[in-house]
């Protein structure tokens, strides 16, 4: 039962040991422990501040990245629109040039056909005239070879002349 009810001497020596230990801890250990705790607290706070700064910088970088991406998208859209416009312009120019070339070829072909037609008609007229002269010559030779036929022919021509 001695342990349950402590003696005054035990209380005295325990208190004295505690006070000496407290003095020694205060003199030698308390300041370094508090300094280490304070340094640890400061390093944790600095780390938190650095993390907050990094978070803000990341937010700024993300905003800049989004802005750059938006600009890149706009530039891409602009380039695509210009390319489409250029393509459409080239196609329309090619179509109009082809249409002009086709119209020119058609005009040239029509002129050539008209020229060929006139030449063919002139040739046919010449051939008809030649044939007519030959036929007339043969008929006249045949009719003029007869004496009676010559007189009838001359009288007929005289009558035609008087009528015209």
UniProtKB/TrEMBL annotation:
Chief location category: membrane
Pfam family membership, one: ATP-synt_B
GO CC term, one of those recorded: plasma membrane
Family: Belongs to the ATPase B chain family.
TM helices/strands, residue ranges: 6-25
Residue numbers spanned by region Disordered: 76-104
GO MF, any single term: proton-transporting ATP synthase activity, rotational mechanism
Keywords: ATP synthesis, Cell membrane, CF(0), Hydrogen ion transport, Ion transport, Membrane, Transmembrane, Transmembrane helix, Transport
Signal peptide span: none
Keyword ATP-binding belongs to the record: no
Stated name of the protein: ATP synthase subunit b
CDD domains noted in UniProt: ATP-synt_Fo_b
Cellular compartments annotated: Cell membrane; Endomembrane system
Source species, domain of life: Bacteria
Topology versus the membrane: Single-pass membrane protein
Function: Component of the F(0) channel, it forms part of the peripheral stalk, linking F(1) to F(0). The b'-subunit is a diverged and duplicated form of b found in plants and photosynthetic bacteria.
Record has Acyltransferase as a keyword: no
Subunit annotation: F-type ATPases have 2 components, F(1) - the catalytic core - and F(0) - the membrane proton channel. F(1) has five subunits: alpha(3), beta(3), gamma(1), delta(1), epsilon(1). F(0) has three main subunits: a(1), b(2) and c(10-14). The alpha and beta chains form an alternating ring which encloses part of the gamma chain. F(1) is attached to F(0) by a central stalk formed by the gamma and epsilon chains, while a peripheral stalk is formed by the delta and b chains.
